[in-house]
Design goal:
The structure holds 2 protein chains of 2 kinds. By secondary structure, chain A is α+β, with helices and mostly antiparallel strands. Helices cover 65% and strands 9% of the residues of chain A. The chains are: A alpha+beta, B mainly alpha.
């Protein structure tokens, strides 16, 4: 019984040993199982390493992360320790990624800086171009102004010449007026042609006595802007109607003569004033002779002469 | 005799338990605090704070501080292994906070540069649009 008992004990020991061995074997078979989360961390690291922009950056941090991941991947019965290792590995992978991205950003900054310098240079070039064109414009404007100044100068020269001319003309006019023996009045130059021009009772001009009228023609040709009013006057001998008609005919006669001498008929008006405006008494022969006359009134130029 | 031997055996067990207990206590008392790891964690946190991580990576920095506090608590509770792990995790977290801060700052600088370049180009196009 003892023996049996012994063998029973042996059998039980064998069973236990077998069970333990199989459990151990099972444990060995389960050994490749990595701690929870290790695979995820490994995947994160692989993703970082295979990133073409980041994989080659922060090599030291990536190396440390890789070591931490490898430690985390080791099978660990102590789940707390396993979790701790996974945690550390995860933080190190994250740190490596952040460092790689920082490095990338810093490299990109050089390119950005170059871009900005390029843009600045462009801006400055444009500014310079603008400034240059402004200078050119200003220079052109300056040239224009100079031109304008030259023009103004030449205009003022012209004005001076004109003024000199006009002065000369005034002097000339003065001389001509004296020649005509005309009076300067508000109505214009008044030239009195005595009745010596006409036969008594006749209206046609005496031949050979046109000398005075020719001076007038000469003057009117010199001053084409002036118009002429021709007024005929008589003495009080004879009827009013007769004198009126006679004075008109004498005025017309002078007008016709002037037209024949080339003075535009548009510039000439002729009117008979009869015996209305005597310049002397009609009671003497000398007075009546003064009253028989034709007055030629040369208007002042449209712009009053200086 | 049987009773005596049983009593003997009982006292021997008690002694053994007592010795073991003393040995275990001694073992615990002899495990020093993970001073180096704690210091490394504290240094990493200080570095992160200096780079303004509280602004750019507040989550990571906060976690690092929490882990360091847990490590200190574990030291007081004589759980030195736990203390060391907390300290190591705190350091890793603080280093991540620094790395993230640097990353955010670098990207912000790039963003600003891109923006200013774009503005410059835009202004140039506008001004050249005004005077074609």
């Amino acid at each position: 019984m003892n023996t049996v008992n012994y063998s029973g004990v042996n059998l039980r020991r064998t069973l236990i040993a077998t069970t333990v061995a199989s459990v151990l074997l099972a444990a060995c078979a389960a050994a490749p199982l990595k701690p929870d989360g290790a695979a995820e961390v490994r995947s994160k690291l692989t993703q970082l390493q295979s990133d073409p922009n980041l994989g080659s950056r922060a090599p030291l941090a990536i190396k440390e992360a890789d070591a931490a991941v490898r430690t985390a991947e080791q099978p660990q019965a102590d789940t707390e320790l396993a979790a701790h290792r996974v945690y550390l590995a995860d933080r190190k992978v994250e740190t490596a990624r952040a460092q790689a991205e920082t490095s990338l950003a810093e490299d990109q900054r050089a390119a950005l800086s170059a871009q900005r310098e390029g843009a600045r240079l462009d801006a400055r070039t444009r500014e310079a171009d603008t400034a240059r064109s402004q200078v050119a414009t200003a220079r052109a404007e300056g040239a224009e102004q100079k031109l304008a100044a030259d023009q103004a100068r030449s205009e003022s020269d012209a004005a001076r010449v004109a003024a000199a001319n006009s002065e000369q003309q005034t002097t000339e006019l003065q001389r001509q007026i004296e020649e005509l023996q005309a009076r300067v009045t508000d109505r214009g130059l008044v030239l009195t042609l005595g009745d010596v021009l006409f036969e008594s009772g006749r209206a046609d001009l005496k031949t050979g006595t046109a000398g005075n009228l020719n001076k007038l023609v000469f003057f009117l040709n010199k001053h084409p802007d002036r118009s002429v009013a021709i007024e005929g006057y008589t003495d009080s001998v004879g009827s009013e109607d007769y004198n009126q008609a006679l004075s008109q005919r004498r005025a017309d006669s002078v007008r016709s003569y002037l037209v024949r001498q080339g003075i535009g008929s548009g510039r000439l008006t002729a009117s008979g004033m009869g015996m209305s405006d005597p310049v002397a008494g009609n009671d003497s022969a000398a007075g009546r002779q003064q009253n028989r006359r034709v007055e030629v009134i040369v208007s002042n130029p449209p712009a009053a002469s200086r | 005799m049987n009773a005596i031997s049983q009593a003997h055996r009982g006292s021997r067990v008690r002694i053994a338990v007592g010795v073991t207990g003393v040995l275990m206590l001694a073992a615990c008392a002899s495990t020093p605090p993970p001073t180096a790891s704690l210091q490394a964690a504290q240094l990493a946190i200080s570095n992160a704070e200096r780079t303004d991580a509280s602004r750019y990576a507040p989550g990571e920095l906060g976690e690092a501080r929490t882990k360091l506090a847990s490590a200190d608590t574990a030291v007081k509770e004589q759980r030195m292994i736990m203390a060391e792990r907390f300290a190591e995790e705190s350091r890793a977290e603080a280093e991540l906070a620094s790395a993230k801060t640097a990353d955010v700052k670098a990207k912000a600088v790039n963003h600003e540069m891109t923006r200013s370049t774009d503005t410059l180009v835009e202004e140039m196009q506008r001004s050249s649009g005004d005077k074609p």
